[in-house]
């Protein structure tokens, strides 16, 4: 089995293989042996993404993969699944034109062949299906849509798939389906599993299936009540690693370091859930006496209202310090003076349901708790013993208007000539207003890739700098899709993602090469940097 190892940041690498059978065999070997340091591995069309717990572990895993003896072929479940489709997609006419076919011929080509589910990824329940022939091979859109409606049926390269949820995406949309592609509460959450045979059936009308999300409890005796949320307030923890094969990204707090710090302030384990507030405006009222702490963006905190049964004046506690929020008092976060995300922790932690072992709200997959809204009550658990309210020193510095982020080139830097690498590194990229937890969209002088064709979809990581056909980079953040089909020119060092999480639109990023031994020759880093500044 031939294997080419390509760096994918400081915590991960891609293993490039000759065939889908080789991909399945290597993926099975890794998931069954579970070598030390492995966080997750994700099968794709011709690659396996391997993600490690640390840079050192990534090096060891690369050596392990290089020497792993794999020859068994894996039998997969080939049951047949029929998906009803109404063919009214907004790209159907464009696809017909690209292929030199009529609309009816495209529909016939899509419904007349069997599609084999090859691998999962991108988002929960999204499964890449390969057709029996090459008649519908079309490129992705030049620029991905910021939102593709749930149920959309798309084409890209050799693949067809159904979008289970509303997500960004660059596939050509030819129709829509109401099939329930994903249910996290089910024993088998995905409707389609790798190996299944999918047949698309044209229909005139769809049977819509409604779903409801579990609601938060009300009338609690100990916790916080949401008064206002500002632009966006979410429950977040350290994320849900290990589920990329189901199409679920790690998610978690955008600024993991500040979320951990907020928990330390109030004596919680660092992985407890906190409230992530975007650009201030969060206001909560204590139900019962609480100990809280705020970390992250530089905001003014105001505590108002006399506690029930007491007489305490309004006051303004500092960030990065624990303080009491007594029964009936309200806490409000002002607009950030620097940074953009604040983290509110409460001693004992929020006693809320988890999805796939995490209480994080994932905006791409829509897993986890819904965005917080006024009136929601969050129960708080009793503090674990022993735990100590603390005052950790040396809060991390918040970013200025221009931040320098370290990157490792690869895995697809060879899709770009050296002058395009220089263009990536020599200019300041501006964060646009369309940026969010899924990714930072950057504006600047566009990059141009070599005319190599379409990249088969492959695993991605937080920090990946993806270059769509239009040339404007998208820097993946915590809720990124787990697979993508545009080349990734480089990946930001994982330590720098916390800083980027605090940068508002209009801020600027400069990229600099990070020199570290490469997994391609038993280390991490894509090509030897010149004039390294790190």
From TrEMBL:
GO terms assigned for molecular function: ATP binding; hydrolase activity
Keyword Metal-binding attached: no
Residue ranges annotated for the Carboxyltransferase domain, each copy included: 3-192, 245-530
Keyword Ubl conjugation: no
SUPFAM superfamilies recorded: Cyclophilin-like
Keywords: ATP-binding, Hydrolase, Nucleotide-binding
Protein name: Sensor histidine kinase inhibitor, KipI family
Provenance organism: Bowdeniella nasicola
């Amino acid at each position: 089995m031939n294997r080419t190892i390509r760096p994918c940041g400081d915590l991960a690498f891609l293993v490039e293989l000759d065939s889908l059978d080789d991909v399945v065999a290597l993926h099975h070997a890794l998931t069954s042996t579970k070598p030390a340091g492995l966080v997750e591995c994700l099968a794709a069309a011709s690659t396996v993404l391997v993600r490690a717990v640390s840079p050192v572990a990534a090096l060891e895993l690369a050596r392990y993969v290089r020497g792993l003896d794999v020859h068994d072929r894996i039998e997969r479940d080939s049951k047949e699944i029929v998906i009803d489709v109404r063919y009214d997609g907004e790209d159907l006419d464009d696809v017909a034109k690209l292929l030199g076919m009529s609309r009816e011929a495209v529909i016939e080509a899509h419904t007349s062949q069997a599609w084999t589910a090859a691998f999962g990824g991108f988002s929960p329940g999204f499964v890449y299906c390969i057709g029996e022939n090459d008649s519908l091979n079309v490129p992705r859109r030049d620029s991905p849509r910021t939102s593709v409606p749930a149920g959309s049926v798309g084409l890209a390269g050799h693949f067809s798939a159904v979008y289970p949820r509303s997500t960004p995406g660059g596939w050509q949309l030819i129709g829509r389906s109401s099939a329930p592609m994903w249910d996290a509460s089910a024993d088998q959450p995905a409707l389609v599993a790798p190996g299944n045979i999918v047949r698309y059936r044209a229909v005139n009308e769809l049977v819509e299936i409604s779903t409801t999300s579990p609601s938060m409890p009300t009338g609690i005796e100990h916790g916080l009540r949401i008064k206002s949320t500002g632009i966006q307030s979410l429950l977040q923890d350290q994320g849900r690693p290990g589920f990329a094969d189901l199409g679920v990204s790690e998610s978690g707090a955008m600024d993991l370091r500040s979320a951990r710090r907020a928990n330390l302030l109030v004596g919680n384990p660092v992985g407890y859930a906190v409230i992530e507030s975007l650009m201030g405006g969060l206001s909560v009222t204590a139900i019962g006496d609480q100990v809280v702490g705020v970390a992250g963006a530089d905001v003014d905190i105001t505590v108002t209202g006399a506690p029930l049964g007491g007489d305490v004046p309004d006051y303004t506690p500092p960030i990065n310090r624990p303080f009491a929020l007594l029964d009936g008092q309200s806490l409000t976060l002002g607009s950030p003076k620097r940074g953009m995300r604040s983290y509110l922790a409460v001693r004992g932690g929020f006693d809320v349901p988890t999805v796939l072992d995490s209480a994080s709200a994932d905006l791409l997959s829509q897993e986890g708790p819904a965005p917080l809204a006024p009136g929601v009550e969050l129960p708080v658990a009793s503090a674990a013993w022993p735990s100590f309210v603390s005052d950790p020193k040396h809060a991390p510095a918040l970013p200025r208007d221009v931040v320098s982020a370290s990157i490792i080139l690869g895995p697809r830097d060879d899709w770009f000539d050296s002058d395009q690498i220089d263009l990536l590194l020599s200019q300041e990229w501006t964060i646009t207003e369309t940026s969010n937890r899924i990714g930072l969209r950057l504006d600047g002088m566009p990059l141009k890739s070599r005319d190599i064709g379409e990249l088969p979809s492959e695993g991605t990581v937080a920090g990946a700098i993806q270059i769509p056909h239009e040339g404007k980079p998208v820097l993946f953040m915590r809720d990124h899709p787990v697979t993508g089909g545009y080349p990734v020119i480089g990946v930001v060092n994982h330590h720098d993602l916390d800083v980027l999480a605090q940068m508002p639109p209009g801020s600027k990023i400069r990229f600099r090469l990070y020199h570290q031994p490469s997994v391609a020759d038993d280390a991490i880093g894509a090509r030897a940097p010149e004039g390294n500044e790190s």
